[in-house]
Amino acid sequence: MRTNIVINERLMRAAMKAAGTRTKRETVEFALRMVAGAPARRRAYARILAAAGSGGFMPGYDIRKERRRSRSPA
Q1: Is 27 exposed, middle or buried (0-12, 13-18, 19+ CB in 10 A)?
Q2: Cβ proximity of 11 and 24 under 8 Å
Q3: In whole angstroms, what is the distance from residue 50 CA to residue 46 CA?
Q4: How far is CA 63 from each of CA 67, 68, 69, rounded to the nearest angstrom?
Q5: What is the pTM assigned to this prediction?
């Protein structure tokens, strides 16, 4: 779809830098994908959270204890 829009140039440069895109078109398409894809990302995150307790996580695991254990001299 071809569309003409007026965009603040300073804002566009900042968005291009943040997104790592080279053209204005890439930047606008990137932003649209981020907005349009938000529900899908939320659903994926909800599935990850739902996996808690299903065997993918160790209850009672303490990373601090493990780090201390690995740092202590033998």
Answers
A1: buried
A2: no
A3: 6
A4: 6, 9, 10
A5: 0.52
